[in-house]
Amino acid sequence: MDESKISVAKEFLFLFQPLSLEDRGELEERLVAEDICQTIAVWGNTLMEPPERFQICRDWGIGIKYQEMDFLDTLDAGVYICRKELSRKDLTIEMRTYLIGLLFLYRQEIAARDFVNRNPNTIICRRQGNRPKGMYETAGEISRELNLATGTILKYGRYASAIESIKRLEPSVAKAILSHRIRISHEDLQELNSNEERISIYGRR
């Protein structure tokens, strides 16, 4: 495997909260002191975990064993990353909210994809029950998995959708919100998302 080609895919960049300088320093000290071969998860040439450990191993010549993951597409890969990142204890409130909301959005798309794959010649008709899993069903599943209310999952889904829209227009603004450098309520975020001029103003700050 050509290590020079391994990186975080563009569509997954926002799914990894960067380590603080202090935490990165502690990780680097530990990895160098232990000097043990590290297992790094990849999907093709795409890193499936935060890039710091991989970069430290490369910088210090620490051995790497690659765990090659197998996903149908970026939706399944995104679900994997969201689940792994949600186990972290250092996430900002905004980042945790975003990851849960994004997990919901990914699962919704997967439900639609799988329905079409199973029923390629079926016309979707909700009244007759010929339909993919609905958002309340998906939210209910995730709510039970994470011990959160179904309404909370739906709210976080709207939050993640707004972040995705802002990210396409001004990535720096989305990054600042998720890192807690721009403090904004859920309601104000929805309002900001509908105002491209205000997003651009934030981006110039």
How does this model look, in words?
- This protein is mainly alpha-helical and 205 residues long.
- Helix content is 58%, strand content 6%.
- The chain is built from nine helices and three strands; from the N terminus they run H-E-E-H-E-H-H-H-H-H-H-H.
- A three-stranded mixed β-sheet has the order 2-1-3.
What is the count of DSSP helices, taking H or I runs of 4+ residues? 9
End-to-end CA span: 42 Å
- Average pLDDT for all residues: 90
Strand content: 5-15%
Strand order of the largest sheet: 2-1-3
Into which percent range does the helicity of residues fall? 55-70%
- What is the strand tally? 3
- Which radius of gyration do the C-alpha atoms yield? 19 Å
Features:
mainly alpha; 9 helices
Can I get a quick summary?
This protein has helices spanning 21-34, 51-60, 74-85, 93-118, 135-146, 150-169, 171-178, 186-193, 196-204; strands at residues 38-43, 46-47, 64-68. By secondary structure, it is mainly alpha-helical. Strands 2-1-3 form a 3-stranded mixed β-sheet.
